[in-house]
Design goal:
One of its GO terms (molecular function) is transmembrane transporter activity. It holds the Pfam family MFS_1. The chain is mainly α and about 575 residues long. The protein has 22 helices and no strands.
Length: about 575
């Protein structure tokens, strides 16, 4: 593999890591973000769209992004995902109310989510089947390591600036990565086709780009002033006229500067549409959207979006899903029926016919769903247990307990990728999930003082390592069992399956725990809050153990058929001969 390709993959992995950090960065920043949007701290439920908006963009749009990566190529999708992520970071950083904040987080979710399938598909394009394990393990490791670095990064930035600084840093890093990916990919293309060099020096293209950059700059400057409305300019007799709405009580977008921002944006879009060499080839991207089956992608987005909104906006202490959950799920069910009909009739559906026909292909999705179902119990209930068993345990102390689990997870991901070259994917996944299942069984026996001793570290570390061990084999199995022109979609679907499993799992497992709590309280009214909380968490851990065990059994049954290692390839060649 060339040096340019190695650098490209390194930058892509770094981008995945940074986007993963952003997934968890709002953990500490959310109260300050609520204040910035004018939401009182006691009305936490109103801030749910800040979180669910990111998840919606991450999950619902992911299959479409993956499919476009198959059609247009991984590098353009990676670059565009970074651009969208950077744009979302900018909008979030200067947001002035809840809708603008949610819009920014949604764009961040779309951009950050699009990096994952494109990077995994790039690994599949650069490495033969038997050598994909380690790079897939590294990608999985940095993706999961974001859960460790995210809150720490947020705390570090909040120690010297406001929450807006977090997203300003995201914008800067995202912009630098866009430039880096562009330079590395263009250098590779120049070496492979020097005849195209003259096209880059064409005077017309230079003029198109110059005007496009000027329109972009005008859009950004006017948009920034519209969002921020600097007090010094507003108070100025001359400049203040730019911030007075044309209509009494109108929004900031019907002010002179707001209209200027909208006009500059419309001109920018028109220029990129009619002059494809300006900045972005909008007509080309629209063509790929249509080729990727935009109607089918829309139906699939509705299916996934309904699930996300039903479970992500719920209060697990009250119900499995939100009060509007039945309506969201009904919409998902209707869209699912229409999607099935569409996939049967469309000439080129978003999920190509037969793409997931192989047993390891669809099996990877089910296993990934169960992995997410079990994993969320660790991420949520380990710190809850820590705070329940120790009255004086702070949020930081509970997070440090979870850190023992999280620190082992990326290590397991790298080791799993390394072992995959000589170990069957089904066996490796089963071993990892059996370790996780056993760890949850031990946690299910924890009492009030279990975290006081050193022995509590064993199930935490073993469980995290086990989950990590299973990540690369699942990804490798679906890539080895699908065609090259469907790797982006397959990578997206396996990530979506795990995310959906996490959303459904947290609600289902919490419901199991609450039923245990209510039953024990009815049987023995003398039990205190701490004792009932322990019983609840024990039930959750046992439920997660069952989900992890089911993932292990299914992985052994279906993923063992995937040819992901040297031995498998040799056996296939011998059988063919």
């Amino acid at each position: 593999m060339s040096t340019a390709n190695r650098l490209l993959l390194a930058f892509c992995t770094l981008a995945v890591a940074f986007a993963a950090v952003d997934t968890y960065v709002v953990v500490l920043a959310l109260p300050d973000m609520m204040a910035g949007a004018g939401i009182p701290v006691e009305e936490l439920q109103r801030a749910a769209p800040i979180v669910s908006g990111f998840l919606l963009g991450y999950v619902a749009i992911l299959p479409l992004v993956g499919r476009i990566a198959d059609l247009r190529g991984q590098v353009p999708v990676l670059a565009m995902s970074l651009v969208v992520f950077s744009a979302g970071s900018l909008v979030t950083a200067i947001s002035y109310d809840l809708p603008s904040m949610v819009a920014g987080r949604f764009l961040q979710g779309v951009g950050g989510g699009g990096l994952v399938p494109a990077t995994m598909s790039l690994v599949a394009a650069l490495y033969p089947v038997e050598r994909r394990g380690l790079p897939l393990g590294i990608v999985s490791a940095v993706q999961e390591f974001g859960s460790v670095l995210g809150p720490l990064f947020g705390a570090l930035v909040l120690s010297f600036t406001s929450w807006r600084g977090i997203f300003a840093i995201n914008l800067a890093v995202g912009a630098l990565l866009v430039v880096a990916v562009g330079l590395v990919s263009s250098s590779g293309s120049r070496r492979s086709d020097e005849g195209t060099e003259t096209a880059y020096r064409d005077a017309r293209r230079h003029l198109d780009r110059t005007l496009g950059v000027l329109l972009l700059a005008a859009t950004l400057v006017a948009g920034f002033l519209t969002f921020v409305e600097p007090g010094s300019l507003q108070r100025d007799l001359a400049w203040g006229q730019l911030f007075i709405p044309y209509v009494d009580g109108g929004s900031r977008w019907v002010t002179p500067v707001g209209i200027a921002a909208l006009a500059a944006f419309v001109l920018l879009v028109a220029w990129c549409w009619f002059r494809p060499r300006a900045l972005v080839d909008l007509r080309g991207w629209l063509g790929h959207l249509l080729a990727a089956d935009l109607p089918g992608a829309g139906l699939l987005a509705i299916v996934l979006g309904g699930i996300v909104l039903a479970f992500a906006t719920a209060d697990p202490e009250v119900a499995v899903f939100s009060p509007q959950g039945p309506w969201f799920l009904t919409g998902s069910a209707v869209a699912a029926v229409l999607l099935v009909v569409h996939l049967r009739r469309a000439d080129a559906p978003i999920v190509p016919r037969g793409a997931l026909r192989a047993v390891p292909a669809w099996g990877s999705l089910v296993v990934s769903f169960l992995v997410g179902w079990a994993l969320i119990a660790a991420l949520v209930d380990i710190p809850l247990f820590a705070r329940t068993t120790t009255e004086k345990e702070s949020q930081l102390g509970a997070a440090l307990v979870l850190l023992r689990f999280l620190a082992a997870l990326p290590v397991g991901a790298v080791v799993g990728g390394w072992l995959l070259r000589r170990t069957n994917a089904g066996v490796l996944t089963a071993v990892g999930m059996l370790a996780a299942s056993g760890s949850f069984l031990v946690m299910g026996q924890w009492g009030a003082h279990s975290l006081d001793g050193f022995a509590s570290n064993v199930p935490l570390v073993v469980g995290g390592f086990g989950f990590g061990l299973a990540l690369a084999p699942v990804n490798a199995a679906i890539l080895a069992s699908t065609d090259d022109d469907a790797h982006g979609l397959a990578s997206a679907l396996v990530v979506v399956a795990r995310m959906v499993g996490m959303l459904v799992g947290i609600s289902a497992l919490t419901t199991i725990g609450l039923r245990r709590l209510y039953a024990e309280r009815a049987a023995d009214p003398s039990l205190g809050i701490s004792e009932l909380g322990i019983l609840q968490e024990q039930a959750v851990f046992r439920g997660a153990s069952a989900a992890a065990f089911a993932a292990a059994v299914l992985a052994l049954a279906v993923l063992s058929r995937a040819h992901t290692r040297d031995v498998d390839t040799a056996e296939v060649l011998r059988a063919g001969g």
